[in-house]
Amino acid sequence: MKAIIKDKPGPGLVLKDVNKAKKLGPREVLVKIRRASICGTDVHIFKWDEWSQSRINPPLIVGHEMAGEVVEVGDAVTQVKVGDFVSAETHIPCEHCVQCKTGRMHVCKNLEILGVDRSGVFTEYAVIPETVLWKFSPEIPLDFASVMEPFGNAIHTALVTDLTGKKVLITGAGPIGLMAIQVAKASGASLVISSEVDPLRIEMAKNNGADIVINPIEQDLVKSIYTISPDGVDVLLEMSGNKKALEDGLKCLTMGGIASLLGIFGGNIDLNLDSLVIMRGITIYGITGRKMFETWKIADELLKSKKVDLSKVVTHVLPFEQWEKGFELMLNKQCGKVVLNFD
Ligand SMILES: [Zn+2]
Ligand SMILES: [Zn+2]
């Protein structure tokens, strides 16, 4: 079978023929991949940046976001059967650490990530443990089912608090920031403001329903926010991983406001916690992954009911063979979500 592989340390990926899985483990499932989407993580692995050098052990089949069909199940599998359509939680919990045992599998101590710590999904058939499979509703198109994992990040980040009647600032309008705009609107936020510097993404933020989009290169973000809302915003969703965006975002929060952080900063950053957080009674949440499976249930319902429309985020669906074009689009940020079609 064909697979997109990091075959050796260094930049780039290759398409190769590899052997299909041997025998399945008792709780493993063989999934025929129908769609897979390219994530920022895959781009990091493609570029072979510092993080990937420290984490990835080539050779490795990359990719983790997918939608597919169950074609074979291990002897002890009970949760899915052949013919089921599934997406996957890509964080594989150990199921025995204290977090897993107390209903917090998303912060499992021994977490393994698909396409990072173990063989991924940019291939024709992938082996996935039954624990992490999600049978999505049949109303959800395959192209969108593949994006449920990052969509779950948007949901998990946005819904740390009740957004009904709240003013929300979302810093960064990459695919997850765009999805968060729709989630905040669907949740009854009274005002959703997006901050973004890239012209294409500014347009997409508007198209995804942001009430106001601010380009912090052209306009001072903090001044603009306090002009729009003299009390600041109630909730900050940080999706950029940019230090200035976080610092200004915190300044935009009203006293006692809530910040939910998803963006990755890639190293130490300097912030005055005294004035930005402590003296202003700010609550900060760090977000990793998705709650298993509360977030997935919400993702499924929002897509099934069309409260969220991912056609405004998925800009490209390419045949699998054109994966290099997909990565190029991602590298140049000339896209929203890029989905590869394996059919
Ligand atoms: Zn991802
Ligand atoms: Zn665990």
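^ zinc ion complex. Residues 39, 41, 64-65, 149-150 surround zinc ion (ligand 1) (CB under 6 Å). The chain has two domains: 2-135+313-341, 154-286.
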